Amino acid sequence: MIVRVLLFASLCVMSRGLDNGLALTPPMGWVSWERYRCNIDCENDPDNCISEQLYMTMADLLVSEGYKDKGYEYVNIDDCWMEKQRDANGSLVADRQRFPHGIKWLADYVHSKGLKLGIYEDFGTFTCGGYPGSKFYLQEDAETFASWGVDMLKLDGCYSGIDDMEYGYPAMSFFLNQTGRPMLYSCSWPAYVVFYGKIPDYKKIASYCNIWRNYADIQDSWDSVRGIIEFYGNDTGNFSLVAGPGNYNDPDMIIVGDYGLSYDQQRVQMAMWAIMSAPLLMSIDLRNVKPEAKALLQNDYLIRVNQDSHGTQGKRIMKNGAMEVWTKNLGFDDKGMAFAFLNLNDGGAPFEVRMPLYQLGLNEAEGYNMTEGFTGKFIGVLKPHDIINASVDPSGVWMGIAYFDC
Ligand SMILES: *[C@@H]1O[C@H](CO)[C@@H](O)[C@H](O)[C@H]1NC(C)=O
Ligand SMILES: *[C@@H]1O[C@H](CO)[C@@H](O)[C@H](O)[C@H]1NC(C)=O
Ligand SMILES: *[C@@H]1O[C@H](CO)[C@@H](O)[C@H](O)[C@H]1NC(C)=O
Ligand SMILES: *[C@@H]1O[C@H](CO)[C@@H](O)[C@H](O)[C@H]1NC(C)=O
Q1: Nearest CA to ligand 4 atom 6
Q2: What confidence tens digit (pLDDT) does each residue in 71-112 have?
Q3: Closest C-alpha residue for ligand 4 atom 5
Q4: Which ligand is nearest to the CA of 173?
Q5: Do the Cβ atoms of 38 and 79 come closer than 8 Å?
Q6: How close is the Cα of 299 to the center of ligand 1, in Å?
Q7: Above pLDDT 70, what percent of the chain?
Q8: How far away, in angstroms, is 174 Cα from ligand 2 center?
Q9: DSSP code, position 254
Q10: Residues 58-65: contacts with CB under 8 Å, at least 24 apart
Q11: What distance in Å separates the CA atoms of residue 138 and residue 190, rounded to the nearest whole number?
């Protein structure tokens, strides 16, 4: 026990990441990109275009539909919010038609709801959507965001190179810090490094960024979700080890409540994002969420696993064809665990899993209080050689939570 405590103490000192007091647990909120993309046609599609009205509506719904009470607090603007030109002083300007009151006013509105406002920029010469990028304007843009009352910045990497990013992303981290306003810093940097076939230096990235994307953008499909889970299962470069309070890998937005996933597949995304300690940033139309999806998004057991204060990122510990086993240690004493049996088959019958607890790494002889992960239903007190029986649907998951009661 003493050895374990000392080990943690030294790890904490050694792997200290960006220290701005933010993202102590994975950030939760809403972001426009996957669902609303670069829809700037407010004349023909006023309810769905990128505009101050959209963000105000979503802020209202986060509160009135109960999401805020569950911890969803960021309202994040994504690409296509700007004018195509900076102003005469070189400052960024929000699109004058679609954001007639400007971003500071919108931030005040979002804050009045007890929520936080995130914004999007790009390290390169342009954003991915072709709006002015931050290259040569990093300090000015950091100061602009601070003056508007922004709480989070996602900095994308289109129209730049990975060699420049080595300097640019740390520089923006410095300029954000210099403003004196704590702003959660989300870096797309490693996703571009991976895209070019290289292994990112995750320790370095964690010392400058709170969260970071490391794989392709999520799409509204099971193929996309499965690909992301496989990337995280491979854990190339051991990026899971860098996760912890202040620093999280970001497998991208939550699409539970959109069009592309079956109910089983939506359960998989929520369970796996909880086990991976992933940011929970929903990109869905909060005006129109099916009750079953809303119940998943607001599931207390899953959110508790996701928000565990230790911030350990769960890992794939077994892979046998389409059958995978993932575990995430919970709490500082390492004695609680969330685990998932995942069936990545596209068809066929459910897998019938029979697994003794010790194969999951649950070795306390006194046994564990075992509960089903989605419902909290008590299964029993199980000892290391006791067996868990689970039926796992195709493209489905069975999740359990084991608590050691000492
Ligand atoms: C440019 O900066 C000056 C001095 O701070 C200010 O008076 C002026 O209003 C700014 N112009 C624009 C277009 O914001
Ligand atoms: C700036 O960095 C220092 C040193 O890491 C930290 O103590 C401080 O909280 C940071 N401030 C902001 C606003 O991020
Ligand atoms: C995961 O690793 C396997 C085996 O090395 C590889 O075939 C697969 O492409 C990888 N998947 C992803 C998404 O990185
Ligand atoms: C990842 O960690 C494993 C041991 O857990 C080690 O063998 C491997 O070399 C590490 N890989 C990288 C790229 O750091």
Answers
A1: 238
A2: 999 999 999 999 999 999 999 999 999 999 999 999 999 999
A3: 238
A4: 2
A5: yes
A6: 48
A7: 95
A8: 9
A9: B
A10: 58/30, 58/32, 58/286, 59/109, 59/110, 59/113, 59/115, 60/113, 61/286, 61/287, 62/29, 62/30, 62/113, 62/115, 62/286, 63/113, 63/114, 63/115, 65/286, 65/289, 65/294
A11: 19
Q: CATH homologous superfamily for 2-306?
A: Aldolase class I (3.20.20.70)
Q: Quick check: 239 and 202 in contact, CB under 8 A?
A: yes
Looking at residue 278, its pLDDT comes to 99
Give the Å distance between the CA of 149 and the centre of ligand 1: 19
Q: Which two tokens stand for residue 330?
A: 């919970």
Q: Where are the domains of the chain?
A: 2-306, 315-403
Query: Which residue's CA is the closest to the ligand 4 atom numbered 11?
Result: 237
Ligand 3 pocket: which of 234, 235, 276 to mutate (most atoms within 8 A of CB): 234
Decide: 363 in ligand 4 pocket, CB within 6 A.
no
Residue 88 Cβ contacting ligand 1 at under 6 Å: yes
Residue positions annotated with a catalytic role: 156, 217
| Ramachandran category for residue 67: left, alpha or beta (phi over 0 → left; psi -120 to 50 → alpha) | alpha
Structure tokens at 297: 């998004």
Residue 10 Cβ < 6 Å to ligand 4: no
pTM: 0.95
Query: Which one is the CATH code of 315-403: 3.40.350.10, 2.60.40.1180, 3.40.50.1010, 2.40.10.270?
Result: 2.60.40.1180
Name the phi and psi angles at 310, rounded to 5. -75, -25
pLDDT higher than threshold 80 for residue 3: no
Q: Is the CB of 20 under 6 A from ligand 2?
A: yes
How do residues 190-220 score in pLDDT, each as one tens digit? Answer: 999 999 999 999 999 999 999 999 999 999 9
Q: What is the pLDDT of residue 4?
A: 38
Locate 90 and state its tokens.
Answer: 């070189």
Question: Which class for 44: exposed (0-12), middle (13-18), buried (19 or more C-beta within 10 A)?
Answer: exposed
Q: Kindly indicate the confidence band of residue 366, based on its pLDDT and cuts at 50, 70 and 90.
A: very high
SS (H, E, C) 74-139: EEECCCCCECCCCCCCCCCCECCCCCCCHHHHHHHHHHHCCCEEEEEEECCCECCCCCECCCCCHH
Span 6-36, pLDDT tens digits: 334 334 334 568 999 999 999 999 999 999 9
Ligand nearest the Cα of residue 199 is 4
